Amino acid sequence: MLTRESVFRQIDADRVIPLQELVGVLYDNHLRMPLRFCRRGREYDVVELLGAFRESSTPPCMLYLVRVREGTVFALYLDLTESVELGGQTVWRGQWVLHFQVEEGETMLVDIRLKQIADFHGHLCPDLALGYRVSQYALERLTLPLMSGALLRVIVENTTSAVDAIQHMTGCTLGNRRLLVRDWGKHAYTFICGEEEGLRLALRPGILPENPEMAELEGKIQAGQATLLETARYQTLLDQRIAFILETPAEVLFSARYLPVGWPSDQSATALAFCEVCGEPVLETHLILQNGHRCCLACVSGPMPTRWGV
Ligand SMILES: [Zn+2]
Ligand SMILES: [Zn+2]
What we know:
Layout: H1 4-12, E1 16-22, E2 24-28, E3 33-39, E4 42-56, E5 61-68, E6 73-86, E7 89-102, H2 112-121, H3 126-141, H4 143-147, E8 152-156, H5 162-170, E9 179-181, E10 188-193, E11 197-203, H6 212-222, H7 228-247, H8 250-253, E12 254-260, E13 272-274, E14 281-283, E15 288-290, E16 293-295, H9 297-301
Parallel strand pairs: 8-9
Antiparallel strand pairs: 1-7, 2-3, 3-4, 4-5, 5-6, 6-7, 8-10, 10-11, 11-12, 13-14, 15-16
This protein binds zinc ion (2 copies).
One zinc ion binds next to helix 3.
């Protein structure tokens, strides 16, 4: 079955079967999506909405990219042709058109390890490819100490998709406490193999130049204003960036240097106590004494800050 990204790749490469057939559609006004359509006497159940695109505003035209139960992806649009004024409101009349079907067949070939990482992460994106390349490079350079049984640990300086690739490639995860996150928003990664020295690999300045077309399309997509073809074009630009990251020699992408590092002492206690404010069980090591009460960090610092959506 085509992934969402592959669907856009196929559309941008014009690998679609044009249909232009009138169909009957069961539309859910609350979910604002088609639930079912009837084509030549056969019913197709929609199981996934891959995108809704405002293709034009006058007349209003919405295009829906849907996956049906059989796995096939179709583009459907409501063609509004006639408007009448009713009680001061414009009421449109229209018909549903089954626009095209997306051809099957994966078009982006990546190596099997990267495929596994993309499955774990949910999609293939430039940051994931960067995380993959940087860990591959580090593991190659640290082959000898790793062969002699040294334990690998990693400090990452961002919280992008790259971190998922690093965890998958190195086995160093937040949960096993061999991954330390210092979110400084940098594509820099320090691989520590042994005691006090780490190999810091950092993305070289200017190696991934800003692409104005990509930035413009990204802005439109985030604002919900991109058309289907713009969204598909964006996927192609992403793919080009991913291909560049995968094909460029690692020493061209990343600078490398060894530097002294510290690692916080391991507080892996599992004993639980109770916060005297909210009553929830908390790791004992995480309790704070405030005004004579033992509190959890959440109760001391208020609601958890979130950077999502910024
Ligand atoms: Zn990603
Ligand atoms: Zn609490």
